[in-house]
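Justification of computing resources. Each target in the renewal requires a structure prediction run like the one illustrated here; the chain below, 141 residues long, is used simply to show the kind of job we budget for.
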Amino acid sequence: MFLTRIFGRTLFSAAKSESSAAPAAAAFRGQRNPLEQFFEVERNLEDETPVVYGRSWKASELRLKSWDDLHKLWYVLLKEKNMLMTQRQMLHAQNLRFTNPERIPKVRKSMCRIKHVLTERAIEEPDPRRSAEMKRMINTL
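Resulting structure tokens:
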């Protein structure tokens, strides 16, 4: 909704006229703009029902995950954080209120807990070289 206000048109939707532009619109929908990752799917602001978002991950839940799962989850959370920060900045520039500011701390907590779990695993590593390498990699996150 706020993107429409900025540019005066809808950015990521196909042409609204369905006459001769139907094949072009179908081809456009198949392609995804990489910038869509930084924006939440638009929802109707007139809708009174509040959207409920999930909680942050607990460290006990993250300890059960594999290295690859934690790696994937880290990048999902990173994309979510970037999307939320982009939204907050764009709304701030328009003097509008960010609708769900409590989502950012949830994402940050989850990311910190992932780093904590990875650090625990690095400390428990019996090989000192591998442990030091893991700690260096975790610190770069």
